[in-house]
């Protein structure tokens, strides 16, 4: 029988139900000019630039929460100063924690609300500044829905499975029910296309054409549209060539600079989040990495990531900051080729990445690939097929390359949702299959008739 997760009572009142979709009229008004609409966007963009807790890209605190509960880290070896760290994803699904996923749902829909205000009310998109505002609004709405899809819906199997409530218009009375996955997917795809039609190039809006293409690639990849993700990933890597050597080290450890092949990042500027940033870098060092993860770096000191990412006590050294960089898309390209049956191209893509991380690297051939490790946590790929040696290599390289960048939990979700557990203080904390899909807010389910909660949750 599937386990049921019980939540502490959420303490806000009935009147606050879905207020993240509303704009009260107490001295407030819908913007009218392009400058006012632009100001609405820059409220969000400034939070990203200064590393505030924003839902569209992780700051250091959010990365600590999502990284520390994966199989890369050893809960049992956590030092006393690490008691603030969650032990497993169940600690983050309800209650009053800052990483509460039900609150995240609300905040993502608040981004949708602000984007809808612009999309529904901009009187003109004739001038370049107006086109930049409209393109950014569509981009932010598409990316917010991509995050909602990845976190609050199960991995894609069919268009008929549960999708998301689609809010197209700014309407304070609208409380839609969940659409199916196919309708949600089409809506997000159309928003990405709309965002790209405005070809935003002004860096001040952050979501430039290249950044939107990167998120569009992530969306196609998550929804298993390999034939659409592959050419976009190839274009990104061509435009943002992979870094190596000292350039790679500088890029990974940069505190505020968007250097190397980084397309988009948080913490562009120092500011009032500096202490939270410092605290996050400190607390992640209180939970050592697992030996199993460290042993994946078989080339040891020949792999630049080995000393860059952790020390000899298995403590994290990599700088935690949300970013989008081209190495991810080199790995997307490799996996898409593998799913499409183009195994030679897939191996070439992953060999290219490894050659830029490992000194004196000798390419693998399809015949020399290591055998599949049957003890590994991930046993099937995104299509539900048993891992091949090639797919295992691609997934291992992704696990290593994107360590501490918020990727691992969703890799586990995408590839079979394996059950695993952590031990602490004599108790066993199990990440069950259903926990990979987060619960909709309790208050919404109770007060919106017909709104379906995700499987496995009971309040």
UniProtKB/TrEMBL annotation:
Under InterPro entries, the record lists:
SusD-like_N (IPR033985), SusD_RagB_dom (IPR012944), TPR-like_helical_dom_sf (IPR011990)
Q: Which UniProt keywords apply?
A: Cell outer membrane, Membrane, Signal
Q: Where in the cell is it found?
A: Cell outer membrane
Show where the SusD-like N-terminal domain sits: 19-220
Q: Main site of residence?
A: membrane
Q: Which residues form the RagB/SusD domain?
A: 325-457
- Pfam families referenced in this protein's UniProt entry, alphabetically: SusD-like_3, SusD_RagB
Q: Which family does it belong to?
A: Belongs to the SusD family.
Return the protein name: RagB/SusD family nutrient uptake outer membrane protein
Q: Which organism is it from?
A: Sphingobacterium chuzhouense
């Amino acid at each position: 029988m599937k386990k049921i997760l019980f939540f502490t009572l959420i303490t806000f009142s009935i009147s606050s139900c879905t207020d993240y979709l509303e704009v009260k009229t107490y001295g407030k008004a819908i913007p009218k000019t392009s400058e006012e609409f632009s100001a609405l966007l820059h409220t969000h963009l400034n939070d990203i630039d200064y590393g505030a807790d924003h839902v569209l890209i992780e700051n250091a605190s959010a990365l600590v929460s999502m990284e520390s509960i994966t199989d890369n880290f050893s809960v049992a070896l956590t030092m006393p100063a690490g008691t603030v760290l969650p032990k497993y994803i169940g600690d983050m699904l309800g209650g009053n924690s800052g990483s509460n996923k039900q609150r995240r749902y609300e905040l993502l829909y608040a981004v949708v609300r602000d984007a809808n205000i612009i999309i529904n009310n901009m009187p003109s998109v004739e001038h370049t500044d107006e086109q930049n505002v409209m393109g950014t609004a569509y981009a932010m709405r598409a990316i917010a829905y991509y995050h909602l899809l990845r976190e609050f819906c199960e991995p894609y199997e069919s268009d008929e499975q549960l999708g998301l409530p689609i809010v197209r218009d700014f309407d304070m009375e609208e409380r839609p029910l969940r659409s199916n996955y196919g309708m949600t997917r089409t809506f997000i795809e159309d928003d990405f296309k709309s965002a790209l039609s405005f070809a935003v190039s002004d860096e001040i809006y952050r979501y430039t054409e290249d950044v939107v293409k990167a998120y569009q690639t992530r969306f196609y990849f998550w929804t298993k549209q390999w034939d659409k993700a592959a050419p976009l990933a190839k274009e990104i890597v061509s435009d943002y060539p992979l870094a190596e050597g000292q350039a790679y080290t500088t890029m990974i450890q940069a505190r505020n600079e968007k250097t190397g092949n980084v397309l988009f990042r948080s913490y562009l500027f120092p500011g009032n989040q500096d202490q939270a940033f410092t605290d996050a870098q400190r607390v992640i060092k209180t939970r050592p990495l697992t030996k199993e993860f460290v042993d994946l770096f078989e080339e040891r000191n020949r792999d630049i990531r080995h000393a860059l990412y952790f020390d000899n006590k298995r403590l994290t050294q990599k700088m935690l900051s949300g970013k989008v960089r081209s190495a991810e898309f080199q790995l997307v390209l490799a996996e898409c080729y593998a799913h499409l049956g183009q195994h030679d191209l897939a191996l070439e893509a992953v060999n290219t990445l490894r050659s830029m991380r490992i000194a004196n690297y000798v390419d693998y051939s399809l015949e020399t690939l290591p055998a599949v490790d049957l003890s590994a946590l991930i046993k099937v790929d995104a299509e539900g097929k048993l891992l091949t040696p090639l797919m295992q290599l691609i997934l291992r390289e992704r696990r290593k390359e994107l360590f501490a960048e918020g990727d691992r939990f969703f890799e586990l979700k995408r590839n079979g949702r394996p059950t695993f557990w952590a031990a602490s203080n004599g108790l066993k904390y199990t990440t069950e299959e259903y926990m990979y899909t987060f619960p909709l807010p309790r208050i919404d389910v109770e007060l919106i008739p017909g709104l379906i909660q995700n499987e496995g949750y009971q309040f």
